[in-house]
Amino acid sequence: MGGHEEEARARACLTAVVRPGDPWLGALLAEHGAARVWAALRAREAPPPLETEEDPTDEERALQRWRGWAHKSLAVDADALLARSAEAGVRFVAPGDPEWPGRLDERPGGRDCHGLWVRGHGDLRNLCLRSVGIVGARAASPYGEYVASELAHGLAERSFTVVSGGAYGIDGAAHRAAMTTGRTVAVLACGLDVDYPRGHAGLFTEVARHGALVSERPVGRTPRAPDFLIRNRLIAALTSGTVVVEAGRRSGALNTAAHADELHRVLMAVPGPVTSATSVGCHRLLKEGRAVCVTGVDDVVEQIAPLDELSTMGGPLPVHTDLSAETARVLAAVGTRGAGTAGVARASGEGLEQTMRSLGLLAAAGLVERSPTGWRRPPSGRS
């Protein structure tokens, strides 16, 4: 087994015993590698030492967590875990994989996401290159759902991927509207074979067809209350910016907004009626100057896209002609019928890694797109 494959396999196993977002585990993985950490857990050994302790005063608590992980690790069968995942159409994406979204490495420390489980036809990295998060209240008002739908539909029309959390209310409205014209990503707090909420089972099937479902939890895991707050950091990290459509005084959407603010991503909020309890959080973000006020898709695009790249506020970003020689060859190899990444690489004469990088850049510029048959040039009039 190759070095990267062994590391990815160990990281997949770790998701079955460690709750997402543990910074101490992230430090261990960065210094010693997942394979060594996993082997130490299985052997009931002491944790490998860190050259720089992130919080020496918390050592006893860390050791308690380690002992708990070691106990749980004995019940993990790596082959069975990966087989169950494959049967459910779920794949594991580790740091260093071509599909790994580079934006996750921009988080403070860059180490608290240890791996992702992904289900769907879309390539996660390319989906997230040009993406916007839309979040808000579960108990959304008709006004909020209407605004979320209009924003998501307009962004998808302009080749932005809409990222949200798969919940009732604003999330569901955003996912559905995005799929009418484009792509969407749902970041879930449970295993990707678990439909939570149950009423969104059909929605999740459609999201997998039009983009991807993402989770840090392995198959079979049902969510607990803290898992939703933990996953919110991924919505903020995967996107260029986040729009809060509706949020109550203590809404989980405000937690997503805090992560976006921490990452220096663009944070936007939609104003609502001053009498609406579901807009109190949005108004607070605007009053405190933490979010930019947006009232339509044009406002969002203006905030997300570099101003010198905008031709008109009503259309897609213009085509660039200053492509590198490698990327130009990849573009020339993409036809209108669709081809897989490997096929484009062969036709262009470029390596697979370079081809994937170039396709990501071309997709972000609107020059190519993913279709059920593979990479293709957009239909006439859309590029």
UniProtKB/TrEMBL annotation:
Pfam families cross-referenced by the UniProt entry: DNA_processg_A (PF02481)
Domain annotation Smf/DprA SLOG: ranges: 92-304
Record-linked SUPFAM superfamilies: MCP/YpsA-like
Origin superkingdom: Bacteria
InterPro entries: DprA, DrpA_SLOG
Family according to the record: Belongs to the DprA/Smf family.
Record NCBIfam families: dprA
Name of protein: DNA-processing protein DprA
Organism: Nocardiopsis alba
Classification of source organism: Bacteria, Bacillati, Actinomycetota, Actinomycetes, Streptosporangiales
